[in-house]
Amino acid sequence: MNVDIPRLETERLILRAPCERDIEPTIAFLLDEARSHGFGSEPDRGSAWRWFAMNLGHWALRGFGYFIIEDKASGQPCGLTGIWAPEGWPEPELGYVVFDGFEGRGIAHEAALRAREWAYVDLGLTSLGSHIVPGNTRSIALAERMGARYERTYMNPHMGEDMIYRHPSPEDLGLTPAAGKVGA
């Protein structure tokens, strides 16, 4: 199965396919329970490696997944953003995280805005939520900065209690899906 992961750009960032050089920074993030708690931390290196491989499988099965966020200036992988909808999720989710040392620069905001635009315009999705564990104030603040509003709480099969923050619709953002795309 061939996976065609697009390459997206913003002023400062590249959103691209995960590759071998991204394994170590992604594993380091997933093993840091304090940093990755709201994203889904992994208990050991093998599980973190399998998450990395699962993300590539998610792209193959769904046609979307998490991009690596790359800083154009340094070429360093600095986080993850994209659309996630594994078994048990009520809908496609817009997710975002930055790796240690890349906080406070607006990277997650810039990358997540671009991923959301891609999901609406290129994938033709008509609705997106960000699923946030209670107490993750930084993620809530970012979702709200992007115009998302609290909609409801549900029991996520992997994360436990999760709050869905609903993003503005493509129409509200003035976005038009590419011809021939069907919303999910």
From TrEMBL:
- Pfam families in the record: Acetyltransf_3
Keyword Cell membrane tagged: no
- EC number(s) from the headed UniProt entry: 2.3.-.-
- Source organism per entry reads Roseovarius aquimarinus
Q: Where is the N-acetyltransferase domain?
A: 13-170
Which Gene3D superfamilies does this UniProt record tie to the protein? 3.40.630.30
Show the GO MF annotations. Answer: acyltransferase activity
Key words of the record: Acyltransferase, Transferase
The UniProt entry, under InterPro entries, shows: Acyl_CoA_acyltransferase, GNAT_dom, N-acetyltransferase
Protein's name in the database = GNAT family N-acetyltransferase
Task: Give the source's domain of life in one word.
Answer: Bacteria
